[in-house]
Amino acid sequence: MPEQTGKTIIAVDDSELNLMMMQSFLEPMGHNVIVATNGKDALELIRTENPDLILLDVMMPEMDGFEVCRRIKSNDRTRHIPVIMITALDKVEDNVKGIEAGAEDFLTKPFDAVILAARMKALLQSKALFDEIAKLERLKEDMTSMIVHDLRTPMSSIKMSLEFLRDNIHEEKLLDFISIASADIEDSLLLINNLLDIGKLEANKMEIRKEDTSLLDMLRDIAGRAKPLLMRGGLQLSVQSDRDEIFCEVDKILVGRVVTNLLANAIKFAESKSTIILDATQLDNGDVVFGVVNQGTNIPEPYKKTIFEKFGQAKDQHNKAGTGLGLTFCKHVAEAHRGKIWVESPPKNFPSGAAFYVQLPLR
């Protein structure tokens, strides 16, 4: 268990006598005690000192403890710091108010020092474990970023070499091999990019850069670039819409990759020589909806509930399976745009297969 001595404690009370008593109790235990006599000073100290625990009096002038606690818990940088509220108020509604403000514990004056020490110990253990998990998570993100970068660079070089060969070789059989290799490289690059960006999206570190975008132009462009993948399965692709134009304000790169992921997924599970449909429309409220429909095996009911979770992959009758990352990436991008994604299997107007739809607000 992480060591519980030598922690930084911020004590907040408008009574200097109470603060002196807390210091005399906590400092012999090896803790570094920093004091504040009002809410404003406390918030500034919390920002600069990053304490392990906060002892917070409720009854203070200008800004009471409830408001200080609410501000601590509404800030992503400080919300994980445990707060023990200490007050002379003894009504149930005051305790409830403290809990609603986000406090982890609530002590009524006069309190027993042994009880305070026990509750502090439990909360400091939780905080230390949280810090350790956060440290490991940062290490994982750094390792993932490094590995993905090291993989993406040679893959991109191979892709450029294949494109050069495709443009300069005219023997049909060799072109077929190049198309297959190009499709495999596209699959690998998609996986590598998904692996990197899912971590960013989960940590809310992915910047969403919206711009006016022609959705139909995007779909047609992606359809054109998907030819190597389509050739491998003898598949056809049809871009359909009930509108002549659909414009929306989205992150063009991220939403384009959503379409690419959904299309790659459809190609993987489509029946040989069938037609995949890229469909788009605009709802009366302005929201845009696009979908990818393929004919093939239905998705079993249990998989429908987990298919958008990381590694929540489904298999078809030939035991083909995806990595379980592409659909997770699509879900995160849709939600980052305040949209949603869902699956219908079998699709409307088809006896079997799957249709994945994404709905995004106009702006």
Q: Say how many strands there are.
A: 12
For the biggest β-sheet, the strand order reads: 2-1-3-4-5
- As residue ranges, the low-confidence spans are none
Distance between the termini: 49 Å
Number of helices: 11
The total tally of domains equals 3
Q: Can you walk through the features of this model?
A:
By secondary structure, the protein is an alpha/beta fold. It folds into 3 domains: 8-111, Response regulator (Rossmann fold); 136-202; 211-360, Heat Shock Protein 90 (2-Layer Sandwich). It is 50% helix and 18% strand. The protein has 11 helices and 12 strands. It has helices spanning 16-26, 39-49, 65-74, 92-101, 113-168, 172-202, 215-225, 227-233, 252-269, 301-306, 326-336; strands at 8-12, 32-36, 53-57, 83-87, 105-108, 211-214, 236-241, 247-250, 275-282, 288-294, 340-344, 354-360. Strands 2-1-3-4-5 form a 5-stranded parallel sheet, with helices on both faces. Strands 7-9-10-12-11 form a 5-stranded mixed sheet. Helix 6 crosses helix 11 (326-336). The protein is elongated, with a radius of gyration of 28 Å.
